[in-house]
Amino acid sequence: MGRATNQHYIPPVNFGYVENDLYRCGQPNELNFPFMEKLGLRCIVWLAPEEPNQNVMNFVDDQDIQLHHLGVLEAGNASDPITEDMILEAFNLILDKGNHPMAIMCNLGRHRTGTVVGCLRKLQRWNLASIFEEYRRYAGPKVRILNEQFIELFDTDLVRIPVEPPEWL
Q: What would the 3-class secondary structure string for 62-116 be?
C-alpha cells in the first residue's frame, strides 16, 4: 500500500493578495509552482526589464498563462524607476476582467510591483499613509523614496477605466 504524499504549497517571495483574483509576488521558482497552479492564473504582468527565467517561462507555457512583459518598454536597468507609460499599460491589463485571475510580478516583488500596486491603491482612493505602509511592508529595508514620490504624484486621471471594471475599483 502506498502512502499519500502531502503536497506543500509554498508561495513565492513577497506574495500577496491585492484584490479578488489579483495577486502580487516576486519571480516564482520550482517550489512555488504547485501554489501558483492553484491560483488558476490567466495572465501575468511581468515588470522587470529582463525576461523571467526559463523555468518560469516553461511554467507559463505549461499552464497556458498569458505573459505580458512590460519591463522591456523602457531602456535601463532594474534599479531605474518605473515609468508612467508602463503603469498605464499595466492598468490596461489589470482593469480588464478577462485577464483575471492575474499576478503582477517583478524579480523580488518589491519596487516595480509595489509601485504598480501603489498606483492602483491611489486609483482606489486609498489615503497615502496606507498606500506607503503597504509599499514599505513589501519593500522592507530597501524602500525607494523615488517610488513613493512617483505614487504620490501619479495622475489617476490618465487611467482609462473600462466600461465594466472589476468590482473592487
A: HCCCEEEECHHHCCCCCCCCCCHHHHHHHHHHHCCHHHCCEEEEECCCCHHHHHH
Look at 7 and 36; give whichever has higher pLDDT.
36
pLDDT tens per residue across span 99-135: 999 999 999 999 999 999 999 999 999 999 999 999 9
Instruction: Give which of 167, 29, 21, 1 is closest to 109, Cα–Cα.
Output: 29
Question: What is the Cα–Cα distance from 26 to 29, expressed in whole angstroms?
Answer: 9
Element containing residue 169 per DSSP (H, E) = none
Owner of C-alpha cell 472589476? 166
Residues with catalytic function:
106
Which sign, positive or negative, has the C-alpha torsion 72, 150, 143, 60?
Answer: negative
Residues in the chain: 169
